[in-house]
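Quick question: what would this complex look like in 3D?
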Amino acid sequence: MLSMEMYPSLTLGPQRIGDCFYRDRPAPAHMPMFPPAACDMAAKALPQRMLPPPPNDPTTKTPKDQVKMELENASLWKQFTTVGTEMIITKKGRRMFPGLRLKLSGLNPSLRYLVLLDIVPLDNSRYRFQGGAWQAVGGAEARLPDRVFIHPDSPATGAHWQSRTISFHHAKLTNNTLDSQGHIILHSLHRYQPRIHVIEARDVLRWGGGQHSFVFPETQFLTVTAYQNNKITELKINSNPFAKGFREDGMNSKKQRDARQKRKICDGTETLDIVNCDPCDSTDLQPQQMTSATDLQALALASLPPMPNPSCGFRPEEAPYQASLIQEQPLDLGQAFIASHMSDIGISMANGMQDMPGSEVANLIEGSDTQAYTSNFPAVQANSSFPLAPLPQSSFLPVPDSSDTSNPQTIDYTPILSSSPTLSSSSNTPLLQQTTFTFPTPPPSNSSSPQPLLSSSPSYHTMPETISPHTPADASFHAPPCQSGLQDQISAHSLLNDQPLQGDSISSASHSPIDQTSAVFIYPNNLPVNPAPVTALSNYNLPLAPSLPCSLPTHGTSFPFPSVSPHMQSFPNMSSNPSHHAFNFQNLSHQTQAFPPSSFPHPSSLPHPHPSFQPSSCLAVPSSFQQSVSSAPSMPPTAYPQNLANPSNSSYPQVDISGIPQFNPAAHYRPEMVRHHPSLLPQLDPSLPSNLPSSNPPQSLYSAFPSYPLRLCQDPHPSLSLPFRHLYRQHQHVHAHPQGSYLDMSTRAVY
DNA sequence: TCTGCTTACACGTTTGAACCGC
DNA sequence: AGCGGTTCAAACGTGTAAGCAG
């Protein structure tokens, strides 16, 4: 999951040593992933330039708790959602329609931000359109490499973002797992949920300080290679200007196409003079239908057909930058660049959460807001033929005024999320749900002040090579003590399997049914669909960097599965012993308990019910959100149809993951290490809990999928500052390297 | 045989270079 | 030479349908 999660800052204080363990784990409960000494050594090996900037920089303070995002074309989305949004995916990449058109507010006008889009699975199911509705028919395909689409304006000031509509209509979806264009790779016939992330970037070299993630439930969709629902087709045609030709009055309408077909049959060739077509269907002959030279002549003689009614909701936003101006040159978004930024982000999140007092959280959770949403939500999903959206449970989602489409609710959940400790301590599901969804307005957050992770360093720009996983620089991090047998296995596994990805992870996960509620999650039912491979190691999508064992522990439970899992594997009975949840996925197990057992009849899920979708899943909180979305599969397939939250009700609050307490600032990542080991990069998904007191483990927010590696897709935008663009030129090792799949920087221009 | 994916196709939209006039 | 407006063709986006593969 894309968790731009945060790599903890580079601060290598005493706590850093402890970070060699899963920091949020009770020490006695688990073994340190890596010997502190080794980690310490690695820390010392870090170049000075990697050290974080001075803390408490007032200039970085951002009213993150006030950051809000609105889905500008929410009404359009809702129209589609009521029918069941389908998105075409093609090998070459297909744009999304409707597109994501957003309005941001609450940003610090003077600070720079990155706006990212990622799309995460809503559940572990594969769907089929049967009987006029979508039904889950099996397990999901292996998780594909996650990619992040960086808005081309990034980084831009808060003033910039707030002064215009932010559109991601240039983002493309593909089902080509080998896509090298930087498109977002998705599986066909799966359900997905787009997420928007706003990340503070003090400058091109320093990300972090604040991250806000927003999820609009009405934007979830099913991927298809061909439209299944005629209603969707009609909606698309009527709404998308590019499809005007297929409208009733268009030249590519059914009527016209039939006429063409008729002529074709009659004449046996399309090149004939239209005049000669009369015998077949003179009445249908329209100038518009002719494309040949002769046709054009005829066209000149005919009256022009009425222009298609341009009344569509689609208003291509004015691209801030002309596409033409941007060369589709490969942009090497250096791993170091990404890694470092991710680290920054992670830090900021951690800080924000850390700052949140438990009492405040509790108050928030138990606030009166809860009732407000709970009482309103029931109206949901009246018309939707869409499978149940895992996100909002009707009884828990706040129901914004459906009539107010122009003002989608934007709720900052920072405080809510930051209340993780409370959540974890409380098994009260309703409370948890409340905290997740009920805040109509963003409560003040103590969260984070921006924390730049990386200090600007000239060398950073000039030494792209050092970023490469293959560079000698890695050597400094090869802390032998950290290298466990498991690591070796992992490495071997990675090497043996050129396919770094998910396939393995998911399938392998299926081997341990017990893990359904844990990070290892694959639904047993998925087994048939996802034949499991082989080794436990295969559970992890991302190949681990053998040379960087120490980086793993720093993530704590919040660490992306790929990294974590391998270590878990090293523990005896890890896969079979439920207790291991407490170890690495304590949060998850806890959350599972908090949630009511899934009603999902799914045989496999019954024994180990995956948490049914809870409002918390709406939490963009990386983990929480993911889990919730991932947990969707736990819902009975039969229950899906018609259960989708009704978009009309929607304006579901967006989730601000920045406030997640799990992301404790205490946890620090070493960007350097990250750079050299792409596979260890944190996922954008902040779901990973981090520094909660060991006594009070964070709620588990793990998704059902092993990992959500961050993949940034963008091209060097002219608007980028020089240094920023420079970063994009860094080498990529992604596809070629078994472990490099983690970073898949786009080499094309995107907007 | 069925389902799903790929590809070619036709049409409309977008984009930007070329052209023209001031 | 510079600027602004218009024209036009290529690129791109779109849904459809045929063909193919499993």
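Answer marked as accepted. Residues 90-91, 128, 175, 188-189, 224-226, 241-246, 250-252, 256-257, 260, 288-289, 291, 308, 316, 322-325 of chain A lie near DNA strand B (CB under 10 Å from a C1').
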